[in-house]
Amino acid sequence: MKITTITKEEGMKSKKAILFVAVLLVFAALTASAETHKLRRIGVNTFAQTKGSIPTAEVMKTIAQTYAGDIKYGFDQVGMPDLYLPFLEQLRTATFTQRSIAVGDKFIWMLFRVRGQVKVWEDVEWAGKAPLDVFSFTVVKDNKEYEFIIPKPCGNIALYKVTEKKAVVPPAVCNLVVGPAKANLNEPITCDVTGSTGAASMDVEVFNAQGQKVASHAFTPGDTKWQTKFDKPGEYVFKAKAVNGEGLASENPCQTKILINTPPVCKLWTSCLPCEDYVGKPITFDASGSTDVDGQIVKVIFEITDENGQVIDTATKTAKPFVWEKTFYTAGKYGINVVAFDDMGAASANTDPCRISFEVTQKKFFYLVEVGGLLARGTYTGYFFGRLGLLWNLAPGALDFIVRAGGAIPSQGDPWKFMFLADALLNLHLGQSLYLGGGLGYSTKEQATRLSGFDLVGNFGVNIFNNYSSAGSIFAEGRIPVFDADRVVDKHYKLLLGFRYIF
Question: pTM of the entire structure?
């Protein structure tokens, strides 16, 4: 037997050759594994034989039950064992769509069968002469969508593509609350969209009754309330929308209406204007004609001011008719201010129709009637007298000028006779009830043997009523002769007690 001796140098060369061959084999294997598999025909090495050309849901359910083990084997081979169960579960209820795979499109992998053995090709390219008709369905797992395809009529299962499932952004739902539903001018109106859901942003627009946009506001999830106010009455419409993170606006109705109250309109009627000779007479202030177009009048306030604008009297009426009677006992310039309130508490504007200046004047000229008893000279023969006259109020409540004339009828016959009396005198008022009077009079002779002539007249009176437009008093009067020495006092003086009425 021949023994061949290998030198050390030859041994080193042999090891290098073996190492080189091993590297070539590994490279060839890697190159082969990275090579794209060209699929030119379909229906030759089928994974599962289906009946007919359309794998219906029932057929696919049968495939899942019959070939479950082979399907699991295939998923294990491609490194997706955790996708196996979701695939089987979702396959049973999957919805299939028909589509075409263009020539040159690639699959991630495909399961098929060769001589009964399950095989897997990864990185598969359709290299047929025409587009490949397939059925497609989707399996969802861990926010990923796996699109599987099954070529017609073969039952091969191929993973076509994997996409990240886009997070579902819920649609925004707008919720709008505006209050109060009815308010007065310039009262705050609150707009609240806090109840909206799924909103990244929200906004509201406000329109008047004519459809014109009068205001708008943008909200954020952290700022969902807004206050506004209106300086014009009428109906206003709030229209809001909420927008989600994808920029899609809410579709649910989101609008409401409010009403800004129309203030009442005051209307004032007075029983005198100008109010001449109205001191002591009641003046009627009537606001019953005030109106409110969207409610009702519930209160009216009357205010009387003096010439300096100071309030000197007031009255509040809370029921119809809205009427106030006021009597002025002092002449002067006054003002009447009337404000009407509706059932929302809104007040009428302080305008001319219900803000009037007027003057109340004192009556200066009065008619006068006096009746009573008279005692003549020292014998005190009784007379009944009556006089008519005029009173001129020189200074209201202070000084009067009176002219009067009348006659006296004796209670006895001859030698007593009818007398004529005439006077002109001044009355000085002492407060509201008392007065003193004095002046010059004339009286005819009460007997044929007596003389007619001038008298000095003085009187004192007490008012028993006085309403400034008329008054009644009881007075006492004395008359003594003057300017005539032949008319001696003891034969010509007279005393009177009577009632005076002026009107």
Answer: 0.57
